[in-house]
Known about the structure:
Layout (H helix, E strand, L loop, with lengths): L18 H7 L2 H4 L3 H17 L5 H19 L12 H18 L8 H37 L4 E6 L2 E7 H26 L1 E2 L15 H7 L4 E2 L3 H6 L2 H27 L7 E2 L18 H25 L11 H26 L1 E2 L1 H8 L6 H12 L3 H18 L8 H12 L7 H8 L1 H6 L9 H45 L1
Parallel strand pairs: 3-4
Antiparallel strand pairs: 1-2, 5-6
This protein binds arginine (ARG).
Amino acid sequence: MRVLTSTLFRSRLEKGFDSKTAKFHTSVPEDLRIFEDDINNSMAHDIMLYEQGIIPLKELKMILKSLMEIYESWNKGEITISQEFDDIHEYIEAKVIEKIGIEAGGMIHTGRSRNDQVVCDMKLRLREELLIIAEQILELIEVLQKRTEENFDTYMILYTHGQHAQIGTFSAYLSNYIEILLRDFERFMDCYKRLNTNPLGAGPVGGTSIAINRLRTTELLGFDSIQMNSIDATSSRDWAIEFASCCSLLMSNMSRIAADILEWSAIEYGYVELADEFASSSSIMPQKKNPSTLELLRGKTSEGYSALMELLTMVKGIPSGYYQDLQQTKITLWRTVDNTQACLYVMTGILSTLKVKPENMWKQVDGSFTIAVEIAETLVMDAGLSFRESYKVSAELVNTVLKKGTTLKSLTPIDVEETVQKMFNKKIIVVNSMLEKATDPKKSLDKRISLGCPHPDEIRKMHKENETKLKESTIKLTDKKTSIKDALNSLHKIAENYLKE
Length: 501
Ligand code: ARG
């Protein structure tokens, strides 16, 4: 059997690549991910060349047919590409030439350089991966919305500095991450706008003298517009860095969810329990149920950040124009795509199956000193003290009950009146109902009225608004997915029609 060899782009050189150096130099391993995109790229480019009168119909048909055959073999898993090849661009062109000869096959790359070709392939692939991530974010939000709904009245302590801060609800906690993730979604959508522009036709760096039609390939490949300047189109990777930074932020947000859930699944809290499918155990301690998937997710966040740093570092010193350093960006990009998608999958699984234990949350709420703020605010509103006066009174009451070994719930109106009298020489009247409003956890939360606070009604309102945002986001996403799908379907239809001519 004749083996396809890599000689296509070395006509100026007398010797082949040193074999170890060829392996060092090749991008074949990371190019496998853009195989399909490279086929689409060539189909669109060559259809455009024909329509511009640059290549004849007969040759176009031969090229399209061979590209389709190559793609079919690829799909069947029949293709393995030797690392002797520089990249898949060389492999596919060599394969086409092997099939139909250099006279026809040699037309495939007219008016195109690998520099605009590779960046076009990368963008075609990355936009699909980005939309998968965006969809996964919406799935995660959907889960959080459902869990919020189930927990409107699940009271829990809100923490600052890891200490009891205020009374809130578990739904308020979940709803906070819905808002964060909606911002993450928007960030990816915004990144998409800058990503989905067409670099094809920029040539090596400065265009071509062949009368190509960049608008046509833009349309055929479903890009929203042309990435105009040929130097920019071939040399910039800011869209990749922006994508990695969106991933980093998303990872950082998920890592913080992981940190909360990890903590709350400890026996000391017992607020939540992971489903067995997402937990592990120990080789020696049979009692263990480890939330190690969440630990890993937190650990893998650093992988996301390192991808961003890698890309920034790769690009920072590169003068304008293509340099081979840019080849490395693909490795980093695919790694961060896989990492982000896997983490989103695990996070969604964990949160959708998480067992919530409201009774354990309530144990901390009842009798908690978090109501000290409510006592202070009640004295401001109902007894006319300045906030700092009432703050000091409330602190004094905390110290008194702590010394007695009781809780703030045991306070009587007289305790409060006397403390105010003693500290500020003021006579106030405290009635039972006033104190009750402050010291009963549920009533104290009912008093909370500021916009966005964890009052169950506020959360219900936010939940409703987020439901609308979720619907709007889904429509936005579907539009983008449909427009890519339509463009690529029509590209293939056009190719098939030419083949019939
Ligand atoms: N394989 C390269 C990459 O992945 C593209 C080829 C550019 N090579 C060149 N000699 N201009 O970036």
